[in-house]
Every structure is written in structure tokens, then in C-alpha cells.
Amino acid sequence: xxILKNRTSHGLRRLFAPVLAAGALxxxxxxxxxxxxxxxxxxxxxxxxxxxxxxxxxxPDIKINWLRDSTGIIAARVLAEKDNPQADAIFALAATSMLxxxxxxxxxxxxxxGVEKLDKRYQDGNNNPDHWVGIYGWAGAICFNTxxxxxxxxxxxxxxxxxxxxxYKGHVVMPNPASSGTGFLDVSxxxxxWDEKKAWAYMxxxxxxxxxxxxxxxxPCKLAAAGETTVGVSWPFRGAKLKSKGAPIDIIVPExxxxxxMQAVAILKxxxxxxxxxxxxxWAVTEPAMEIYAHRYSVVAMPVKTKKWDNFxxxxxxxxxxxxxxxxxxxxxxxxxxxxxxxxxxxxxKKKK
Length: 353
Hints:
The chain contains twelve helices and 13 strands.
């Protein structure tokens, strides 16, 4: 498989929703007459490769050009292209973004085959046919470098509130919620755990200990694994994978609870390949696809028996909050605007195109 990197400028309430990340065109061997789709995704690159290969094997008559980037970048791109869509479908974009796009009438109504096997809370409860369908979710966590902690005499945090302790000053990296879905799920969850006033007060104190805000949800954990920071606010699978490779990190699931986000799939209006796009969405909710997701992510839309990645913390699901995706979607712009005013000064620079 060739990978070309491209840098680019009503049951919902109870649901278990960078540096500029490189996009990728992932295409398997297909016939010259194959249908062709462009699909935007925020799935991290290593997992997207597995997903792309699995789809291609099942659907050799459809070639997909995948464009991958962080949540904020993909969402901004989709919105900018609203009147002239360049993609046929979206795969694994945060529900908080999908709900906003649906309000703008950007999706083709389509209920995929086999959707009756999914937990109904992952379906679009407002429309029939569905406008989008949830497929899996991921949650927040802390990656903690035990070697760096020992060097700096830092205790292991067990709660989010621990990270405001002055001993962590300069030792914490967190994703920017404007560009990272992981960053936004953290911020929106703190507001739901404590309330907005207390959450802003918490973030004011946390900001004093932050060394930098990244534009990727994976990067803080990668930095912790490399010993470039002690505490990386990230997500469980990234930590589990790095720990399995020998990184001296623990994956901590804070006791107050963790935010999480649902990833969804949808067909964009304007597609010139509707039948192929429907086949793609059909595949995205199949059991084989769910098995791939279940191995890597916190929750999936269909119950499947798949072993989690080694070192994946077992308490993730029990500590996921009762996330109000509709509230988060409706307040996302307001929250991010205020966050930028307060804290963006410590965000890392974005890479130029």
C-alpha cells in the first residue's frame, strides 16, 4: 500500500462523542474501472491503515482516497467546502461536529444495512432514514512517564484536580481543544463533571502548569513516552500501544471521570458516487469492522468479542461520563472561543502548508 502524506490548511444524552497531522491517501490494488471515493477521516494514521486495508479487501471494486487530519482541521475543511463538497463521505469524525453539519443539511439520508445490530444509542435518533451513524468512541486519559517522574520527584496523579499542584509546573502537555477532538472532550467533560464556572477556574490553574498545548491528541502521550514531558493528557489506546513497545509510562484514568467522544460516519451531499458511498457506510457498521475498532478504542456500537490492546486500562468504560453530546455540540464554538482567549498563548505553532 502506498501512503502519500498531505498537510492541509433523543437517546444521545446517555451514550457511552497537532502539529497539523499528516493526511494520507491509502489505496489498495483495484481494477481500472473501480468506483472511486474521497473520504475524510480523523482516525489516527496507524489505525486508519488497518481499516483501509480491511475495507479494500472486502470491496476491491471501490478505491478510496483517504484524507486524514485532526478533528478541528477536518471539521473546518468540511465546513469550508459546504457549497462545493470535495469529499464523498466522512469516516470517524466527532459526533459534536457531525451534529452541527447535520443542522446545516450537509448529509445524504441513509440507514446502512445491518444497522439493527447496533446499539440504538449510536443511531441518529432525530431522523429516519439516519443522517449519520456512530461506530465507536474514544476517551480521555493521562500518560505518565515514571522515569521522568522519579527524576523530578513528582507523584503520580490519580485525579484531574491533581494536575493543578504547583509541583507539575512545566511538566504537563495537553491537546488544544480547537484543533484536537481529544482536547475538546477533556474540556467539555470537565464542564459537565464540575460545572462551567468551576471548570474554567480549574483550567486557569492547570494552565499555569502547562508547558504547551499540542494540535494532536496523540502527541502529548508520545512526548511523555519519549521523556520530553512527564504528564501527557491524551487517550488510552495511544498510551497502551506505546507502553506495549516499552515506553516507561503508566496510563492513568482519573477518578472524577473521563470525557469521551463518539465517532460517526456519514455520506456528504454532492457525492457523485452515491452507490459506492452507501457500500462504504454499510461496511463501516459490519461486525468485521467493529472487531477492528473494538481492539483499539474504548467502546463500539456493536457488541463484539475482541481482546483489547495489551496494557489498555480496564477502568476506562466504568469511568466514562454520561456525556451530553447535544450540549457539547451546541456550545462548542463558544467554549473554544473563550478557551483561545485565555490559553492559546501556550499553543505550539501550526506547521505551514
